[in-house]
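Re: How this chain folds, sequence and tokenised backbone to follow

Filed under: protein folding, tokenised backbone structure, sequence and structure records.

Contents: The amino acid chain and a row of whole-number tokens, matched residue for residue.

Body of memo: The sequence and its backbone structure tokens, given next.
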Amino acid sequence: MLGHSFSRRDNSVLGRWWWTVDRWSLGVLVMIMVVGVLLSFAASPPVADRLGLGGFFFVKRHMIMIIPALAVMLASSLLMPRNIRRLAVLVYIAGLGLMVATILTGAEVKGARRWISLGSFTLQASEFVKPVLAVISAWMMAEKLRNPTFPGLSLSFFFMFMYVFLLILQPDFGMTIVTVATWGCQLFIAGIPLFWMVLVAGIGFIGAVGAYLLLPHVTRRVDQFLDPTSGDPKHDLYQITQSLEAFKHGGIFGRGPGEGIVKKHIPDAHADFVFAVAGEEFGIIVCLLIVGLFGFVVIRSYLRVVNEQSLFVMLATAGIAFQFGMQSLVNMASTLHIIPTKGMTMPFVSYGGSSMLALGLGMGIVLALTRKRYGVIDHL
């Protein structure tokens, strides 16, 4: 439809955007959002009823948040690389400031301080820092390789460490893992010396051991994953047990829309365990299609920059696409009990306003960086 609205000779901002943006990735991202709305209708009404909020409370809020998320994604996809870097610095500084404020004044929920109230809106600032950190790290690494005297790796490590330090204070171990893994992925693609790769592995190992020894909820989840009999099946293992039952009952084709049982029992059916609702009501085939949509976006993003001349564009795109894929993978793997349970949303599908907006920003940046350039777009 938009293709008929803009001719190839249209030199307006939107005209140039339409003929240079990766419309396949854009279309699949919109499809994932549509899947999110459908699963919100399936999963959230029982949760809302239990909380006395009215059956479609979360459905309405989910649909409302899609509008600004789409707006943020489309607006950021119009940016040039130079403006993306500027935006990343501003969001990083503001995000770290809000994370500090969250730790000091935020409400404690399930033993963590991750959200801060801004009027009627509850914000998780760490979600917004995650994609822009990948941009800043890519910038620093690219400058280091362009100018060997520039301390790009040290600066990249410093920016990553500041963010991870605040994540640990919240604590948010899952996002810490995603962040360090993303940084390691970018280092690997950049061809950084072995020392830095060993440093990443060391940080990851020390962080994992430290979290297991110092954070009781991490200890409990890992112990339960390794030995299911170590926890209370009526409390500690309740959600994952229900989740696995949902996939078992759903089978290949599912019980049918609205026929699921798991959403009536799992408190986070509309958020962390929405994949279980999909498995029970729509079956394995639909679940595999959902996996395919996420896989398409990640692979497509990498293919768009595989021959990219700008190292910054390649590293930033690879970092954010890696985050997108890893976040979806962690959510699905947790739901299937392949890894210890971790409260991480499925991108654009799970309920969560901050996550939705931050993902819109991140994937908008990917769409901007993977636009066709014809050698004229500023990389500086």
In short: Residues 12-369 form one domain. Confidence is low (pLDDT under 50) at residues 374-380. The two ends are 34 Å apart (CA to CA).
